[in-house]
Design goal:
Strand content: 5-15%
Order of helices and strands: HHHHHEHHEHHHHHHEHEHEEHEHHEE
CATH topology of the largest domain: Rossmann fold
CATH superfamily of the largest domain: Vaccinia Virus protein VP39
Shape: globular
Bound molecules: S-adenosylmethionine
């Protein structure tokens, strides 16, 4: 039975809402080699390649709209249904309803929707539920679970309130976002998470799931930037300094430290993020990676470093805040120091492949919803650096082959 389901799943077209689940499967499970070979795009790309090419009356287009319905995946997450279905064999809807606390009619319709739209669960005999490879990942992978929870139990609600928030506040402050409205808070997402660690943890799990996706791997920044040459070193000793601002638990610095043995890394983030982060650094790198609590909107305490990277940070902030964070760096910069931004890059329409452009536009909408922030074009970056300080020079932007994010580099000159 399990084999039949696996073949069924592997031959079905990849459905965007199961992409995160599949991506986790590929990296963490050996359940199905076929799934690992399934072409994947990010889980937030809920449209499909054919969206926009259909007339409104085309049933395929309607199907694509309908699959956006989040209730089934939200129910699967909220009632922790995957853990209540036996790994082998099946369970009746009635027994599952009793186990998870969702009434029979609603449980059955949610799962039957998930089966046909997301290939999560199957009905091997009438009235009984069994796992598919995709639903099994939700048992085995905490990050996949966090991803489904965050997208369907948090982001969807926030998306629905985004324009309402714009009408209510007309502001680009992060605490005036659709996300803040949906959470009934006057705080920004980061501030609210600081007081709600369980939400922060779910978000971090979702980020880990996304970070493992093709195109977003840290290796694109590690291999796509000349780290070893940012400081002179002939002896292999740590001679240069990199200050990774908003560097979270140091995941990127750990990879960069392996690639550039002549560099010392300081990871800066909010206190709750860096708290205890040293524990995650491998023993052989501990002398080269330090953590420091620092709010990037206040004056930079590490003076004279060679590179100050911001990876996946500025797209969380409006232009005004981004300018403010760059201004806070200025007094610490030595001539030749570089600011390196690793973010999505919004293209001129039609200049990227359709799938890549959809991914960028989707992320741009998420930034709108969560933070009143945005992804940016080249001219936006030029304007932001110039507004921060005209002594930021030589802006360069490139995208490593296969990377979803581009690298933006600016050099500091004293005049
Ligand atoms: C999307 S995460 C990116 C993490 C990491 N750079 C990466 O690429 O995986 C954004 C990070 O910015 C941090 N952050 C938010 N506000 C900050 C502030 N005022 N000062 C420093 N870091 C901040 C968050 O805590 C979070 O770790």
């Amino acid at each position: 039975m399990a084999d039949t389901r696996m073949v069924q799943l592997a031959t079905n077209p990849p459905h965007p809402s199961t992409k995160m689940v599949r991506s986790n499967l590929a990296s963490s499970q050996k359940i199905s080699a076929e799934l690992a070979r399934t072409p994947s795009t990010p889980a937030w790309s809920f449209t499909t390649s054919s969206w926009g090419h259909h007339s409104p009356s085309d049933p395929t287009a309607i199907d694509e709209i309908i699959q956006l319905n989040p209730i089934s995946l939200q129910a699967i997450y909220k009632y922790d249904i995957p853990s209540k279905v036996p790994i082998h064999g099946d369970i009746s809807f009635a027994d599952l309803s009793a186990k998870c606390g969702l009434d029979l009619i609603n449980l059955r319709r949610c799962l039957r929707f998930a089966m046909v739209y997301h290939y999560i669960f199957c009905e091997p005999r009438p009235g009984f539920v069994a796992h598919t490879a995709a639903s099994r990942v939700l048992v085995d992978s905490p990050t996949a679970r966090s991803g489904v929870g965050w997208f369907f139990d948090e982001l969807f609600q926030a998306s629905a309130r985004t324009l309402e928030a714009k009408q209510k506040w007309g502001s680009d402050e992060p605490q005036h976002s659709g996300w803040s409205l949906s959470q009934n808070t006057d705080q920004s997402l980061w501030a609210h998470y600081a007081a709600h660690p369980e939400m922060a943890q779910r978000f971090a799990g979702c980020m880990s799931a996304i970070a493992g996706m093709v195109g977003r791997l840290p290796s694109f920044l590690v291999n796509g930037y000349p780290w070893t040459s940012v400081a002179s070193s002939s002896s292999g000793k740590a001679k240069g300094t990199v200050v990774d601002i908003g560097g979270s638990k140091g995941t990127i610095c750990i990879e960069m430290a392996r690639a550039a043995p002549n560099l010392h890394f300081i990871v800066q983030d909010l206190p709750e993020m860096v708290h205890g982060a040293e524990a995650g650094v491998p023993a052989d790198l501990k002398t080269r990676i330090d953590f420091m609590a620092h709010d990037m909107f206040t004056e930079q305490p590490v003076r004279g470093a060679d590179v100050y990277p911001f990876r996946n940070v500025f797209h969380n902030w409006s232009d005004g805040h981004t300018v403010q964070a760059l201004k806070a760096l200025v007094s610490a910069l030595k001539p030749g120091a570089r600011v390196v931004v690793n973010d999505y890059f919004t293209p001129e329409p039609g200049t990227m492949t359709a799938s890549k452009e959809r991914e960028v536009r989707a992320m741009d909408m998420i930034m709108f919803t969560l933070f009143n922030a945005r992804e940016r074009e080249k001219r936006d970056w030029e304007m932001i650096f110039q507004q921060a300080d005209p002594r930021f020079k030589d802006l360069r932007i490139w995208t490593p082959e296969g990377s979803a994010l581009c690298i933006i580099e600016c050099e500091w000159r004293n005049r």
